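User: I'm curious whether this sequence folds into something compact or stays loose and floppy. Could you predict its structure so I can see for myself?
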Amino acid sequence: MAAAAYAAAAPHAAAYTATLQPASPNTLYLQVGNGAFSGGSTYLTNNGRWSGATGAHDGTVNTVSVTVPAAVVGNGTPQTMTTDSSAANSYLDGYLFCNLPNQLYIGGYYRRTSQSNGVAPVVASVPANLVNASGHTIPFSQISWTSSGNGDGNAAQPFPAGSFVGGTQQSIGSFASNQWAESCWTFSYRNTVVPAGGVYTGTVTFTVTTP
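Assistant: Here's the prediction. I'll summarize afterward.
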């Protein structure tokens, strides 16, 4: 995911998770923004299996961005960010889960060949700063998010609300063994700094690993 901040002159199940039936081979899939499936039906069947479909590499790097009006730069009023992602529906069952362009989908699954208690952690690699063409910076900690999903109510999310910690490998959630999990993130720019004018960019890389 690429994040950009612009400063001018001065009846889904709650907390969407689903248990999957063990199947071969072991499979791990993470989607942040746009994603892809290949090889068959993308939706889960009643026995917790797909009709031959598996998660595929999409290659898209989605952007979350905001343009801050000059009159409010640095005044502490948070600015809602939007995404260019087209992923709104869950690959689990096709349900309209996220509301575009204000929310970014994050989810996927960890399926094993047998029942087990393993957990696959998801980590964000966060640069220290957003940077413009002149080398001026905005701390990545200026970006935070809330977490929800249509039909979830107030249930706890598998990928909960938080804020970026610049220059770190940051835990942002996990998949339990044989579990599908997904959330929708709504990003916000804190707007508590007064940077030089320009377009500031930075890329966060998300990684999931098996135990």
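Summary: The chain has one domain: 2-208. Residues 2-208 form one domain.
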